[in-house]
Amino acid sequence: MQQRPNSSRRQFLGLAGGAAVLGALPVVIVRPAEATPAMLASAIQNVTGGAAVRTGKVKLDIPPLVENGNTVPMTVTVAHPMAPEDHVRSIHVFNEKNPQPNIANFHLGPHSGRAQVSTRIRLADSQKIVAIAKLSDGSFWSASVDVVVTLAACTEDVI
Amino acid sequence: MASALINVPAKAKRGDIIEIKTLMSHIMETGYRHTTAGEVVPRDIITSFTCRFNGSEIFRTDLFPAISANPFITFFTTATESGKFEFEWTGDQGFSETASASITVE
After folding, report:
1. CATH architecture classification, A38-151
2. N or C: which end of chain B has fewer CB within 10 A?
3. What is the pLDDT of residues B38-69, one digit of tens each?
4. With an 8 Å Cβ cutoff, is A122 touching chain B?
5. What digits encode the pLDDT tens for the residues A46-101?
6. End-to-end CA distance of chain A, in Å?
């Protein structure tokens, strides 16, 4: 028999009750056009320095449905020539809901031949992944993908 | 003990774009996990990976806790001359490992 009241269960029931009440009210939630949390926005700002980021050129290959968030294969390709006078300088990958917005920064050069990198990443929740490429002319291009994660990574307890 | 796996083609034609695959064994502890006692497990990750060819840097990556354990990184480079690739991983708690691979360009 359990002597101590289970506080997390109580909290959960309380929250669930609250949510039910909220749901019953005719509340209209206006979602912003870009549901980007502030941390993601500021991490991108750190890289771009406020310059405009255009959509395109970048291809972010990542499975849309991920079972295990501990290792998610990811490939970023930038459709851009790698000539000495005009090339991709760096590729930056960000996430929305991990404890930290950065995933990785890749620094390339004209000798890279092809602007493509692959790695394996961790995702703590279903979220949006953003890849931004910086070109040698100073322009920024981006792509984003929404990923659904069933088993979250990063923050689980050590057993 | 840390160990590296490197995949570089042994031979290439001049001007070919070759793929380089690297894997370094490392736990990549995020610093966001807790033990059952509630203590934070201190962060222990690789923070930087660099590849040099004949001494000059050709590729560099900054890594964050969002990179999976045993970081696997692939990238491309243009084969211009025969020489040696040198790979270097550095990270928290004084982590530093190197590896190298040679290529013959015809």
Report:
1. Sandwich (2.60)
2. N
3. 888 999 999 999 999 999 999 999 999 999 99
4. yes
5. 999 989 999 999 999 999 999 899 999 999 999 999 999 999 999 999 999 888 99
6. 25
User: How many angstroms separate the most distant Cα atoms in chain B?
Assistant: 60
CATH code: domain B4-105 is 2.60.40.10
pTM > 0.90: yes or no? no
Q: DSSP assignment, residue B19?
A: E
Helix boundaries (H) for A25-136:
38-48
Instruction: Look up tokens 């000495």; give the residue.
Output: A84
> B69: distance to nearest CA of chain A, Å?
8
Is any Cβ of chain B less than 8 angstroms from the Cβ of A54? no
Q: Which residue in the set B32, B60, B78 is minimally distant from A154, CB to CB?
A: B32
Domain boundaries, chain A: 38-151
- Among all residues of chain A, which has the CA nearest to that of B56? A111
